[in-house]
Amino acid sequence: MKATVLVRPKPGILDPQGQAVESSLRHLGFAVGDARVGKLVELELDAVDEAEARREVERMCEQLLANPLIESYDIEFREQE
Amino acid sequence: MSDATGQPLVAVPVFPGSNDDRDAAAALELLGARAQRVWHDEDELPGRTAAVVLPGGFSYGDYLRCGAIARFSPVMRAVGSFAADGGLVLGICNGFQILTEAGLLPGVLRPNASLTFVCRDVRVRVERDDLPFTRRAAAGDLLSIPVKHGEGCWFASDELLAELEANEQIVLRYAEGDNPNGSVADVAGVCNATGNVLGLMPHPEHAVDPLLGSTDGAAILGSLVDAARLSSLVVA
């Protein structure tokens, strides 16, 4: 099973990278609103079912992958191709 | 507590990517301590350790978040229990980042608001002079100490900041107009609730020799050496 973890800056947290991206896109002529930059982590797991995998990946997020003070996360699963 | 020579032992953990450990050790020795660098995979701090200084650098390449991976090094378990017992722990720059990630200090360090690496002297105001890290200074003193970091923008939510202000845990602030990174409330250094753990972004170890322009860093590191000399909380 493969898991994709999306780590995002929480709403209201200053995101200077997002601001720089937003400003660059505007310079290129794109009409964008707010841009936010996060991280994507892809994981391969041995878990037998999604519920078990979700518990495991949530623990990874709490302990290492995200800092709960400033980041939120979403987890998506798909079977191995 | 110090050894027969009167020199307290200060442990300086070294992580893959630390690069200020030698400067920290040299500054501590100049100020009268005995410094021992300790590789990160050691489970224990050296016997007679009276204080710990976590040095600056780029532990684990700053991957994921600064300090996020170093906090799981075996030596950090020993540092955590030393701190929990009341032992003196100072984190400088990357050391500060590691301490926040480890939950030993409040808040988090984020990319500088400017998104640029800053490397210059800043003026830092001492807010408290009653801590083991600041007794050589007086509240209100402005210290000139260099910073050099890309991710030193200390952040805390409004609620957390209010709590820290009420507890007087903001120990150092950038002087007005001299905040190099956009940190909340101009915070340059914070301590834990019990005042035995301090983290700061400026590098006092680079400001102890007149040859380098300022000796104001000795106000911080010298205070730590004084406190370590008197501390009864020493690793067995």
Short summary of the structure?
Chain A has 81 residues and is an alpha+beta fold.
Low-confidence stretches of chain A: none
Task: Kindly give the count of domains of chain A.
Answer: 1
Fill in the CATH topology of chain A: Mth169, Chain: A
Structural class of chain A: alpha+beta
Distance between the first and last residues' Cα of chain A: 9 Å
Oligomer category: heterodimer
**CATH superfamily membership of chain B, which one?**
Class I glutamine amidotransferase (GATase) domain
The best one-word shape of chain B is: globular
Architecture of chain A, according to CATH? 2-Layer Sandwich
**Strand content bin of chain A:** 25-35%
Reading off the top of the CATH hierarchy, the class of chain A is best stated as Alpha Beta
CATH architecture of chain B: 3-Layer(aba) Sandwich
Helix content of chain A: 25-40%
Write structural notes for this entry:
The complex is a heterodimer of chains A (81) and B (236). Chain A is an alpha+beta fold. Chain A has one domain: Mth169, Chain: A (2-Layer Sandwich). In chain A, 35% of the residues lie in helices and 27% in strands. Chain A is built from two helices and three strands, in the order βαβαβ. Chain A has helices at 16-27, 50-65; strands at 2-9, 39-44, 71-78. Chain A has a three-stranded antiparallel sheet, covered by helices on one side. The longest helix of chain A is centred in the C-terminal third of the chain and has 16 residues, at 50-65. In chain B, strands 2-1-3-4-11-10-9-6-7 form a nine-stranded mixed sheet, with helices on both faces. A two-stranded antiparallel ribbon of chain B has the order 5-8. In chain B, 22% of the residues lie in helices and 25% in strands. Chain B has a single domain, classed as 3-Layer(aba) Sandwich (Rossmann fold). Chain B is globular, with a radius of gyration of 16 Å. Chain B is an alpha/beta fold. Chain B starts with 8 loop residues before the first strand and ends in a 6-residue tail after the last helix. The interface between A and B is medium-sized, with 11 and 19 residues.
